[in-house]
Amino acid sequence: MSTSRQKIAFLTTGATATFPALIEAAVSPSFLEALAAQQYTELAVQHGADGQQLYDRLASKAESAGSGVKVTGFALDKTGLGRHMRRAQSSNNAEEGVVIAHAGSGTILDAMRTGVPTIVVPNPSLLEDHQQELADELEAREYVVKGRVEDLAGALARAEKLRQRTREWPPVNSGTHKGLKGILDEEMGYLD
Amino acid sequence: MAYYIRALLITTFLLSLPLTYLLVWRLKYTLSLTRPKPIRHGRRNPREPTHLLIVLGSGGHTAEMIAMLERAVNSPSPQSAQSLDWRDFAHRTWVVGEDDELSATKAKEFEEMATSLTSQETLMRGKVRAYTDHGPGSYEIKKVPRARAIYQSPWTSPFSVLRCFLACWSILTHGVYPEDVSAMQHIPADTKGRDYPDIILVNGPATGTVMVLASVALRFFDYKGAATRFRMRTLYVESWARVKRLSLSGRILAHMVDRCLVQWPLLDAKKTGPGRAEFQGCFV
One MF term in GO for this entry (chain B) (predicted)? Predict the structure, then answer.
């Protein structure tokens, strides 16, 4: 038992907007049971400054429920979340875990670059609900799993299937286009 | 008395028609897709300093902008000719929201990383041709009041937009030297100040939209010769998060910017999008 490897689920709500619904759905006894069923050993939560109170309340309740999954949390890391996402990568003493993220474009890019299966959950309170389209498109292309706050456990199961199929970003054939440099050169009027 | 008032109203009405026509014509001319570009003599000519202005909105906008610029300077590899050499721009102005420390930090970190990359061209220049290179250039980070705060409805933003507009106008015109200087083929080395930005790069935040509007206003009124200098080429890159529909900024700017780039093929104007949208691949 004590020699079993770690398996970490990292959850991020982003640094700009609050997403309390996601924290509530994740730090709940039912989701922690789902994590335990998939042999996860830890749920690390980045909850943002606004989510501190909510997280503290939920975490103490979760501890008393006793699912066997350790719950840790922090508000922000100014140096970026790459380090925390990489904890979910496979290594000598850790099995590959999962990243659960709000569906912000910057966060999604960071998560895809780590290669860890990613569940993206759109935050519906933003302008024009703009996170839905990107989540749908990336799920259709099998880069990520789109999750809903109401059914995180289902998304977790689909992420296990995604583990075998993870695709790299950026796509390999993307070098055929002009790129930003090409556009800048055109606009500057360079003839070379 | 009533006669004079009526005459005044009729005259005003009749004059307003040609006036409106002139204003619309002037606007169409300002926003014309075929407005000329300046003639350049070489890529890093110290006598023709180049100036790039970038607007960093907060959160995802900053993340995408930095990701896009990082990919441009690093790919395929920093040494190849297809990667962007950051020093092609002698001066870079970064515009961030006044309370956005995170974006200011990201700008600074990017600058430090990008100017230390050495391209093959620079390696080959050596000491002999050093006089044709202006080195790592300079950058500054300027702050503006936000045009719209997160969750703020666009309908309540006129005051914040106006404050932002005035700040953007002052940034664009800051230290701009007069027309007769800019008309010279070679600017004297001791000239104080600089020209309008050559390119204004924005990727969606309201602050960026307001910056583009300020540059259009400058060109509309030909302030300090803005219309005849052929600078301030506006480059709008729609957010990667916009797959099926342009964002609000995109819808406003699609008909106004010199280049409007989308990152998903469905938004290309030839298919369904409005205005000048082009799909040239994904940049992030």
Answer: N-acetylglucosaminyldiphosphodolichol N-acetylglucosaminyltransferase activity
